[in-house]
Amino acid sequence: MLMRGKVVQTPAEMKRELVRRMNAKDLSGTMELIADDAVYFWSNGVALFGKPAIAEGMRANFDGIQNDTYETLDVTWLIDTPDVAVCVFRFRWEGEIGGAPAAGRGRGASVLKRIDGAWRTVHENLSQGEWKSRTE
Q1: CA 12, 76, 73, 120 torsion: positive or negative?
Q2: pLDDT tens readout for residues 50-66
Q3: Is residue 52 a part of any domain in this protein?
Q4: CATH number of the CATH domain containing 105
């Protein structure tokens, strides 16, 4: 599958490309990788249903957070079939809001589905809390 000049063949490559586009604040490129009927739950309690609502939320973040970086860590694939893939991960971000330093972190889960031959995010759930128990 060719996306903006890049060949994306696996769910892991798609997930990395999504993060790359988000860090570039490439809204149209980011939205290419999200299904029309996707559902996003963010760690601040916001629930976004459908691509227009997700685009509006991302635009607000892109505009409101400056000099920012977002990264996913410890991505673990729980399901990886030819048509559906599910991963869990840690995330963290940092940047500036209104000129003041800001940061956040948590854990996430993504559900990806192959739609018309291309991987798309159909669900993303970001939450607060520990990644693993402290005894692991």
Answers
A1: positive
A2: 999 999 999 999 999 99
A3: yes
A4: 3.10.450.50
